[in-house]
Amino acid sequence: MMADVQSYLEGIDLLVGTSMGGFLVSRLAAEIGKPHVAINPVMDVAATLNKHLGTHQDHFGRPFTLTDQVVSSYPAFLPSHNGMVLLDFAVD
Predict the structure, then answer these.
(1) In this structure, how many other beta carbons lie within 10 angstroms of the beta carbon of residue 54?
(2) Phi, psi of 5 (to 5 degrees)
(3) Span 42-58, pLDDT tens digits
(4) pTM score, two decimals?
């Protein structure tokens, strides 16, 4: 996948993502050495996705199944020295 994305990133100076995008830019930025800002990134993918295990429908009505195997395939959030993480904690 990196080979496909690399050409798009050559002229980019900063990667920014929020939620799952924040998680992804932290991984991508670490891989390619670009600075990034992750806004409220998913910090623990397993904890987030475990609530949704089972069979569901996508936006087109097609069924899919989210399994433990898929959830455990996600790596941990990867903070880096060239990034900023902005978090908002809700207080009840």
Answers:
(1) 9
(2) -85, -30
(3) 888 888 889 999 999 99
(4) 0.69
